[in-house]
Specification:
Structural class: alpha+beta
Largest sheet: 4 strands, antiparallel
Mean pLDDT: 88
Strand content: 15-25%
Order of helices and strands: HEEEEEEEEEEEEHHHH
Helix content: 25-40%
Shape: elongated
Distance between the termini: 112 Å
Number of strands: 12
Oligomer: single chain
Strand order of the largest sheet: 1-3-8-6
Low-confidence stretches: 1-29
Radius of gyration: 30 Å
């Protein structure tokens, strides 16, 4: 009787080991996934699936953004290519508004990430229109895309799709005073900033009431001097003179 129980116990252990072995093989052979690293970040405040780029206060004609793609699972001893495609919903035009500088999409041997270099190109129409490009990760022979999203603070963050929105739209600074600075315009803002040697951001957040009073009158005096010297400054329409508000006259 004892021998029978012993044999049954050995059979049970053997079956259990075979079962565990099969489970481990299934896990080890599971295909790795690729995902956009920023969307997969552990810290919720740093996790995002979209990016906004503004040329408004930049002097550059283009901007190169680094978009990191990561792989799940362990590192391997060989290079693995992955696939990226521009989503048809993108409003930005390849070769006009953007260019993908990366020639190959490869996660190198013994690494778990790669960087896509995306060049955004500044164009005149961006002063009034925003454009966006959406990049999608696609499955291939090396990687799957089953890690499609993650939940961050009750919000679903896409991990295999990322959206880059960009424009050159200049918005009215937060502390702009119509009474002293007059009607807002892009050209007036940059004229004031160049003359006063301040930034648009300073007018947006830091300028004081006393500075608004003094600086607006200083700018108006400068405009008057330019006009008297035969060099009046016009708005972009070439007809309307740039001038400060009624309280600065």
């Amino acid at each position: 009787m004892n021998k029978l129980i012993y044999r049954i116990a050995l059979l049970f252990i053997a079956v259990s080991l075979v079962s565990c072995q099969k489970d481990l093989m299934t896990f080890d052979n599971k295909q790795a996934d690729v995902y956009f690293s920023d969307a997969g970040k552990a810290l919720p405040t740093l996790a995002y699936d979209s990016l906004y780029v503004s040329f408004a206060y930049s002097k550059s004609q283009d901007s190169v953004r680094n978009i990191v793609v990561a792989a799940t699972g362990s590192k391997v001893d060989h290079d693995r290519t992955y696939q990226v495609a521009v989503d048809p919903s993108s409003t930005a035009i390849a070769g006009t508004h953007f260019a993908v500088l990366s020639q190959k999409f490869v996660i190198k041997a013994n690494t778990q990430a790669d960087t896509i270099k995306l060049k955004l190109v500044r164009t005149p129409e961006m002063q009034t229109t925003s454009y966006f490009v959406v990049l999608n990760l696609l499955p291939n022979e090396n990687f799957g895309t089953s890690f499609k999203s993650r939940l961050v603070s009750s919000k679903s963050i896409k991990t295999i799709s990322t959206k880059i929105l960009f424009n050159d739209i200049v918005r009215k600074p937060g502390k702009w005073s119509d009474a002293y600075f007059g009607a807002f315009s892009r050209k007036k803002l940059f004229f004031m900033c160049d003359f006063l040697e301040i930034t648009p951001q300073y007018i947006d957040t830091d300028i004081t009431i006393s500075e608004i009073t003094a600086l607006s009158k200083l700018v108006q005096r400068h405009l008057n001097q330019l006009g008297a010297a035969g060099n009046p400054v016009y708005e972009d329409d070439g007809v309307t003179l740039i001038k400060m508000g009624a309280s600065a006259q």
